[in-house]
Backbone:
């Protein structure tokens, strides 16, 4: 399935990296930045990541990318939205995100700007956006998780 749009969000700690990644993504994709749109140390990530997660759920295939300080609080918050499968990348091997897309149909990638460089962020985003869900036995397993959401 072709990506229609990418939703982008984060917090003040990830603002600079988010802005740099956004310029890079705009070369290939339509991007909607949910914010923060300006740097403000007083911002609260739920104000941005929850609305973004809701947009991801409503779209047919428009994934979300969150860039924050650690990405952990944002991962927790977005996973509270029914239908979201968010995972956190904090550096190391991109295989974890590849596997999460293939097996768990990850639809939001969260990452921490304090733990990844811009180059690594772009690399893992590329893996996230270009890896397809494998379905099959993985769909059965995700179905069991979806029952819990109901």
Residues:
């Amino acid at each position: 399935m072709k990506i229609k749009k990418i939703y982008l969000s984060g917090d003040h700690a990830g603002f600079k990296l988010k802005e740099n990644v956004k310029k890079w993504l705009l070369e290939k994709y339509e991007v909607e930045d949910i914010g923060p749109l300006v740097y403000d140390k007083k911002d609260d990530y739920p104000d941005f990541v929850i609305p973004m997660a809701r947009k991801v759920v409503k779209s047919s295939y428009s994934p979300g990318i969150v860039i924050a300080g650690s990405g952990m609080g944002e991962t927790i918050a977005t996973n509270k939205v029914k239908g979201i499968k968010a995972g956190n990348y904090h550096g190391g091997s991109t295989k974890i995100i590849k596997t999460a897309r293939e097996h768990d149909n990850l639809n939001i990638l969260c990452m921490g700007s304090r733990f990844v460089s811009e180059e690594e962020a772009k690399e893992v985003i590329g893996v996230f956006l270009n890896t397809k869900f494998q379905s099959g036995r993985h769909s059965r397993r995700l179905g069991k998780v979806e029952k819990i959401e109901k």
